[in-house]
Each structure stands twice: as structure tokens, then as C-alpha cells.
Write a structure and sequence with these properties.
Radius of gyration: 22 Å
Largest sheet: 4 strands, antiparallel
Strand content: 5-15%
Strand order of the largest sheet: 2-1-4-3
Low-confidence stretches: 230-248
Number of strands: 4
Amino acid sequence: MPPSPDALFDVPAPAPPVARLLVLAGEYTRHNDSLDVLDTSAPELGSYVRSAEQLASETTAAITAVAGLRLFDHADLTAALVRLKQVAYLADAASRHELVASRVLTAFAPEAIVGSAARIAAHMRRRQSGHAPEPDERLDAVRQTALHEIALGHVVSTSSQGRDYVHSAGARVLIGTLRSLEASELAERVPESAPPAYVPGGRQDRIRLSTAGAIALATVIGSSPAAREPSPTPAPAPASTKTAPRGH
């Protein structure tokens, strides 16, 4: 059955399981943003119920996709799947609560999903399961960190007096890095979709992973960003300037 046309989001075609989780985290961020800017007197108020139901369904489907990989059992894998099941349960519960309680139930879903995705990816890489993709060479430590912050739903952009600014709730993301990611079509912005930083400020632009960005991040998430940087070449030792002692 196709999703309702008035749903708050459209779920893209399934990506590889880890990338699929990163896309799903972005959908939770979109859901939460929609609740934060929703006019409680609007006739679309009930749309959050359908959105929460769809999120619960997609989270369950993502769990099934991971289980379908038939990975070796490990405590990290078990913890990740349990956390994802908790997220699905909370999203389902959110569809049956009024607006304020619903928003609380999905508040930390993006972080939970991204954390689970990182654990699963690290497990695949550690076990050399054959499912772990080769690292995307475009992602140095700075880009990897920025995409990770975006996946968490931490990054927004604003404009003032003709200048763009980037704000992140976690690690710092530079405007130049964001522009590079947008130019590479790894990240995209949704204008005025995020709540204001203060009242009565204007809405902010939410920065989200594109599907290509999710697929790229999935190749390195769970590994240390520092490991993406080449080891520096040691500087040559300076020539000795010590003089021979004079005879007595």
C-alpha cells in the first residue's frame, strides 16, 4: 500500500542496511522538526500520527534488513538491534499520544539510530563479513565528522546580512566544508524547516544527508575519523651543529 500523500516525508528506495539507517535517522529529524514548527491550530495536526506510524514501520523494516545480513553474533550487534527495536516501539507509541508527549518519545531517535548504525558498521568491518564496503576516498576526517554531525540532526544554517552561518550542536562544522559537501551532492539543505534558535527568531535551514551522502558515510562510520588522514611524513632530523671540543 503506498504511503499517504499527506505524510510528512517520503521514504526513498532501500539502500544498503547501514546507509538505510542513516537515511532513516534523517527522517526522524524531519519528523521532529515538523512537530517543532507545527501550528497546533492547523488542520494538518493529525499528520504527525501518520508520520510516526510510518517511522515505526520503516524502523522495523531496517531491523529486518540488518538481520538479513546474517552477521556473526556479537554484544555490539545485539545492543544495536535492541536499541533500534526500542526506537521502533517509541515511534509506534508516539503515534498514540498527543503532540507534546509524541515529540518527547522521538526526541533522541536520530542519535540512537546513528549510534546503532556505527556499531553495526564497525562489527561488519571487524569481522570482515564481506558486507562492509570500501571506504569512500572522498571522505577525509573533516568531511567524515561533518557528515556524522549532519546525520545526527545537529546541523542547521542561517543567513544574516548576506552571509551564511553554520551551527552545530556537536562537533564544529565549517561553512566551507558544508559548501563542499553540498557541491558534491553529499548533503542538502531544507529551507526554513528547522525551528528558530530563539524566540521570535526565524526558522533555520536544516542540513540533511542526501542518499549519496548516507551511502558514503556508511563506508566509514564506526571508524575513527583520524584514521582517514594520511600519516604525516616525519621531518628530517636537523644537521648537527655541534663542534668538536678543542684540545687543551
